[in-house]
Design a protein that fits this description.
By secondary structure, the chain is mainly α. It folds into two domains: 1-34 and 73-150 and 231-247 and 261-360, no CATH class; 367-764, no CATH class. Helix content is 62%, strand content 3%. It is built from 25 helices and six strands. The longest helix has 51 residues, at 99-149. Keywords: Cell membrane, Membrane, Phosphate transport, Transmembrane, Transmembrane helix, Transport. It is a multi-pass membrane protein.
Length: 768
């Protein structure tokens, strides 16, 4: 793989604009190469004399190497402007052939390198401030741990302070074991304090020596602060995790003080652990950012040397080594400090365990998944062909039981069809998100190493497809076969057994079939059920949006309950449509997903104070009204209800389409760099965006058709028509998914947001 592609693949997607523009510099070098090529001879055939023949004669005894070495093609300089530093290079040979392009190359290289250095220094500064904050949080956590687990311990027996930032040590500590501590960081002194403590524990058998009147012990006790004195000034800042705790949090007028309970300590430890892991991975990514950009600079200047036959790379790389980017000492020290603190306080001194938790997990692709995906897909195609053959040979479409089958059995199996199609669309979404470097796993908040790839999602969809189609085929075969026809109860229970198997797999507590992803889905679904009591995150409202496209699947679940609970499923008959309760819930289950999104918009409005959530909530509320009017029209309440259903459905469709394209996708910006699209696009082919806009509008009209409730067409059964409209809506949602996350990703890129912000557990007064 060429370095340009490798460089792009190794970038942090959200920081892409902060990296060296290797592609542009390479394009300039191509122009340099072209401009340095010798020109063709003129028409007269006379060769032009080289400029070197007109230079001054240097004598026969002069050495061949010129007074100006090849290294002198450029000189570098560091310009100080207040606290800012900029790195510049000056090219001497601009009068040579192609010299103008070479000047442009070094000008662009300097600009790109200074951009990278500024970004690196900015992040180092932010991480240093964050390290100071984490140090204070760790001091409070250690004091809280002692207060909870050993409440009788005196304040002067508290563990040593944790200083991740390496702040200057206290001037009172001048020596440890006779060694000078001046000019050394507080963290390094802390490490030696730990060593002394361990030695004294081994010798004397107690935690800390009480002999404060002698030597080293007295020095250590002077350095150790009375951390327990911090606790009265600390307020807990742990976000509520359950609906009950949310209600208590809302009732409380202000943040409470510490309660010194074990549950409070456990939650605080979890938050600090997450914060340290996130902080450590930021440091690792920033260190990788430095290394990758230095490598890019090295590659591009060496490529320049190769093209021009000069030796400018040595001089330029010396300047790079002198820059902050060339020395990652600060970041490396922070990494070492975080490792030491984490291993001691959260891994019981077990380095292997601590490093395993800290390091970023990378999910490995399994070849078995790809193999079985292909096998299942082939089996699914074979089963589809078999079902078509069975239907044709037995002339099922012309049989007397056709309508009975479509009214009773088809809705049961169509439920699985909707899920399979949605999984396949999601698999396609993941494939294209990865292809265009949209960081979906970060935006969804997946735990590292647990996110599913497009192959794994496709494996799930094809596996469920094989299971469903096998049940459909066996159902048809058992119904016609004389040997099995008498087992009607078993035959008619196949759809229920299939649903039971699916639910058992979803809620299976064992670590099989992607347990972490299943539990993530269950947790997000529970957040939707208790929407007002949980902070709304992207994965929550994204899942709610998916459910708005699965209204027909919810209605199929309702039909499952009615058909097997109150219907005569053995005789394949039911009275669900005659039940007022069924009709009422038929209306309710369609409203629930849109009502959840409305409540989510209300919660986000309260938290973020953004008026856009008002309009978004009104959009979903208009859909709720449209569904209500549609239900009234189905109940034959008169022409007034029909007109209201039509008007409300048109309003909901127009508002939904506008919000999809303008707000969710960020398109139709007339003054953008890409007319009627947006400034930044991940797909270079602009026609894809216009095609997606047109498809979204057309498929929205199909959704409007379902809301308006057109009656059964003469050539197709009503249930089949409902399924087709539902399929079109799922396809529309799959298209919407890609562009929605693309827009969110570009917003993160604009803010260089590549990491989660973990809330810290403690608030404290400034004097702490």
């Amino acid at each position: 793989m060429k370095f340009g592609k490798e460089f792009l693949s190794q970038m942090v997607p959200e920081w892409q604009e902060a990296y060296l523009d290797y592609h542009n510099l390479k394009a300039i070098l191509k122009e340099v190469s072209i401009s340095r090529q010798p020109k063709a001879p003129d028409a007269s055939g006379k060769l032009k004399r080289k400029m070197s023949l007109y230079r001054a004669f240097s004598g026969l005894t002069t050495q061949r190497n010129s007074p100006r070495k090849q290294d002198d093609a450029i000189i570098t300089n560091i310009v100080h402007n207040g606290s800012e530093e900029s790195y510049q290079s000056m090219f001497f040979m601009s009068s040579d052939r192609g010299g103008g392009n070479e000047v442009l190359f070094f000008r662009e290289l300097d600009a790109e390198f200074n951009k990278v250095v500024r970004f690196y220094k900015k992040n180092v500064g932010e991480l240093t401030v964050e390290a100071e904050e984490l140090s204070k949080q760790m001091d409070i956590l250690v004091a809280l741990r002692i207060k909870v687990e050993k409440p009788d311990v005196a304040s002067n027996d508290v563990d040593e302070p944790v200083d991740l930032a390496g702040a200057a040590a206290s001037s009172t500590v001048n020596s440890i074991n006779g060694r000078s501590t001046e000019g050394r960081s507080r963290f390094e002194i802390t490490q030696e304090v730990e060593t002394v403590d361990e030695e004294m524990e081994a010798k004397e058998g107690n935690s800390y020596s009480r002999k404060g009147s002698r030597g080293t012990t007295q020095t250590i006790q002077e350095h150790r602060p009375a951390s327990l004195d911090l606790l009265p000034h600390v307020r807990v800042n742990i976000a509520p995790e359950t609906p009950v705790s949310t209600l208590k949090y809302m009732v409380a007028s202000s943040k409470a003080g510490l309660s010194y309970k074990k549950t409070e300590l456990r939650k605080s430890e979890e938050l600090v652990t997450r914060a340290l892991i996130e902080f450590y991975q930021k440091l690792q990514v920033l260190k990788g950012y430095s290394f990758l950009n230095i490598l890019a600079v090295s590659k591009i200047v060496k490529k320049y040397d190769k093209i021009t036959s000069r030796r400018a790379s040595k001089v330029y790389l010396e300047m790079v080594d002198k820059s902050p980017l060339g020395s990652t000492l600060e970041v490396t020290r922070l990494i070492e400090r975080v490792e030491a603190v984490f291993i001691k306080h959260f891994a019981n001194g077990n380095r292997r365990k601590g490093m395993d938790i800290l390091r970023r997990k990378i999910r490995k692709e399994k070849h078995g998944i790809t193999f079985f995906s292909g096998v299942f897909f082939g089996c699914a195609m074979a089963l589809v062909a078999a079902i078509i053959v069975v239907i044709h040979l037995r002339n099922i479409f012309e049989s007397t039981g056709r309508s009975q089958y479509m009214d009773n059995i088809f809705p049961l199996y169509s439920f699985f069809g909707f899920i399979i199609l949605h999984l396949m669309m999601y698999s396609g979404n993941i494939y294209f998100w990865r292809r265009y470097r949209v960081n979906y796993s970060f935006m969804f908040g997946f735990k590292q190493g647990t996110e599913l790839s497009h192959r794994e999602v496709f494996f799930l969809s094809t596996g469920l497809a094989v299971l469903t189609l096998a049940c459909v085929l066996s159902h048809l075969d058992m119904e016609v076969d004389l040997k099995t026809k008498r087992f009607e109860a078993i035959t008619e229970s196949i759809p229920l057994a299939l649903l039971t198997v699916l639910l058992l797999i979803i809620f299976c507590p064992f670590d099989i079939i992607f347990r972490s992803s299943r539990f993530f889905l269950i947790r997000s679904a529970f957040h939707l059920v208790c929407t007002p009591f949980y902070k709304v995150t992207l994965e929550d409202f994204f899942l709610a949006d998916q459910l708005t496209s699965q209204v027909q699947a919810f209605r199929s679940l309702e039909f499952y309950i009615c058909y097997y609970g109150w219907g005569d499923f053995i005789r394949r008959s039911n009275t669900c449509k005659e039940s007022k309760v069924f009709e009422a819930f038929y209306f309710v289950v369609a409203i629930i997903p849109y009502w959840i999104r409305t409540l989510q918009c209300l919660r986000r409005l309260i938290e973020e104070k953004n008026v856009m959530h008002v309009f978004n909530g009104l959009k979903y509320f208009s859909t709720v009204i449209a569904v209500a009017m549609r239900t009234g029209n189905d109940l034959n309440m008169g022409m007034t209800w029909r007109n209201l259903a039509a008007v409300s459905s048109v309003i909901a469709t127009i508002s939904g389409t506008y919000w999809d394209i303008v707000c969710d996708w960020g398109l139709l910006r007339r003054n953008s760099k890409n007319p009627w699209l947006r400034d930044k696009l991940v797909i270079s082919n602009k026609s894809v965006y216009f095609a997606a806009i047109v498809l979204n509008i057309l498929l929205r009209l199909a959704w409007m058709q379902s809301v308006l409730g057109f009656r059964e067409a003469p050539f197709i059964h009503r249930q089949a028509l409902i399924a087709i409209v539902a399929v079109l809506e799922i396809i529309r949602r799959g298209i919407w998914n890609f562009f929605r996350l693309e827009n969110e990703h570009l917003n993160n890129v604009g803010k260089y947001r590549a990491f989660d912000s973990v809330p810290l557990p403690f608030d404290y007064d400034e004097m702490v």
